[in-house]
Specification:
The protein is mainly alpha-helical and 134 residues long. The chain has a domain of 84 residues. The protein has 3 helices and no strands. The protein starts with a helix and ends with a helix. Helix 2 packs antiparallel against helix 3. This is APCL protein. One of its GO terms (biological process) is negative regulation of microtubule depolymerization. GO terms for molecular function: beta-catenin binding; gamma-catenin binding; microtubule binding.
Length: 134
């Protein structure tokens, strides 16, 4: 009888230890969820800032083309290519479509706004179009 009492006490202690571990894991999951929400909000804010900057850059490019400042425009194109390449290198594993294949595709009608990488490619296409029009 004392053996069964000892094993019962041992099971009770194991159950309490599992409850503590479960509580700890729940708190950790909640903390991670809160952190993820915060990161998603920050990412959304950053996307809005990038869209705003993208618009300003496109406007500046139009002004430069109309005023004949092509060397600055060429530097902007090179910089845009570098930024797009760095972005694709850093975030390519998360891209569902495989990443690099879309860079070589011909420019479509108007800028695509599917994601941050698309914004860079759309700007580059627009700069090329403006250069051709000039």
């Amino acid at each position: 009888m004392s053996g069964s009492i000892a094993s019962y006490d041992q099971l009770v202690r194991q159950g309490e230890a599992l409850k503590k571990e479960n509580s700890h894991l729940r708190r950790e999951l909640e903390d991670n969820s809160n952190h993820l929400s915060k990161l998603e909000n920050e990412t959304s804010d950053m996307k809005e800032v990038l869209k705003h900057l993208q618009g300003k850059l496109e406007q500046e490019a139009r002004v430069m083309v109309s005023s004949g400042q092509t060397e600055v425009l060429d530097q902007l194109k090179a910089l845009q290519m570098d930024i797009s390449s760095l972005y694709n290198l850093k975030f390519a594993p998360e891209a569902p479509s495989g990443g690099r294949g879309t860079e070589e595709s011909p420019a479509g009608p108007g800028p695509q706004r599917d994601g941050p990488g698309e914004l860079g490619r759309a700007t580059f296409r627009m700069l090329e179009e403006l250069d051709r029009e000039r």
